[in-house]
Here is the input.
Amino acid sequence: MSAGRRLLIRGGRVIDPAAGRDAVADVLVIDGAVAAVGQDAAAGSGDCEVLEAAGLWVLPGLIDLHVHLREPGFEYKETVLTGSRAAAAGGFTAVACMPNTDPPNDSAAVTRAILLKAEEAALVRVYPIGCITAGQKGQRMAEFGDLVAAGCRAVSDDGRPVMHAGVMRRALEYSRHFNIPVISHCEDLHLAGDGVAHEGAVATRLGLKPIPAAAEEAMVAREVVLARQTGARVHIAHVSTRGSVSLLTAAKAEGLSVTAEATPHHLTLTDEAIAGFDTATKVNPPLRSAEDREALRRALAEGIIDVVATDHAPHGLADKDLEFDVAANGIVGLETALPLVLRLVAAGSCSLHRAIDALTWRPARILGVPGGRLAPGDPADITLVDPDEAWTVDPEKFFSKGRNSPFRGWRLTGRVRATIVGGRTIFRDGVMVGGQSR
Ligand SMILES: [Zn+2]
Here is the structure.
């Protein structure tokens, strides 16, 4: 928006857990920042563009700290541009992208290339995540200083664990110099073996090789111990088991700097979903048991799971149109995340405020980025949602290149009506209205 330009979002229900606000109010935006929120925000607003929001929710822009944009190297699966469109359509105003690209994001050159693509896309804010180890090989540490200087907000070898505990310890110690979180993909590869499904009755019945819950929990336990030893900030990616929740509960009670995320698919589905061998349900960590899902839901409600992150993992048809054993792992999540979380709220497993907090303020705090709140001076990153609109998931209509959603055909309630970044509307009523045109 040009200098002095004003936007008034009028008469919506402003739900902003971080600011402690849940009331019908106007939001006045001046020069890309929130200028006022309240009944009288419109007073003295003068000449301005008005967005009528009666009947809608006005939320701080959603922030996803775990997505795979696939660029560079896997542009047939997704690009920074298509992933940014998917994010905008899903109500996300900022995403943090994992470094398992080709080449991996283990150097300032790759970080800068991603940021340049994001700038060209001119849609959502993109925060690159750098590698923990060079080439994600798990041996030699990446140069965190260069990565952070180039714009990385965290480090992770996501997609793979750092199996060498000594390397992880040094990485955690080193991360403290830059005050960045280390995001851990917790999977003991020796325990996971060549498994493809949660170890339990369903895998046995289907004859699929199992991945025990212990493959995740052994690594979560190690990371908790190393967090205690180093004092570093550890963030556990895609938590999927009850045992992991117990470990996190104890770590938090002890006051360690350990945070965690869960995905909408692990919060929604169980291993029963794989019974039809639909490869859209194949994901790592695998969909777990009903008891695990229940533990995740409770942990989200209690804040033990801090954040809902999508682990948006688009694939091409050729990666997924294979036998279950050999198909790629991953689920596209950006365009279904919010209504799936609202489904948990509607079922009474999580309060609305905690759910919104888990999608806005908490991820902003973990990444140390602006946004996640609508107080005067905050960037005007805002998501407008019709909480009552029901719609049917059709992956063919996704803005993402990925079609690999296990929610195909699901009827969901709650739809993003507008996504605003820095005061600029980039998505409205199903149409991408900002950013580059091609
Ligand atoms: Zn992962």
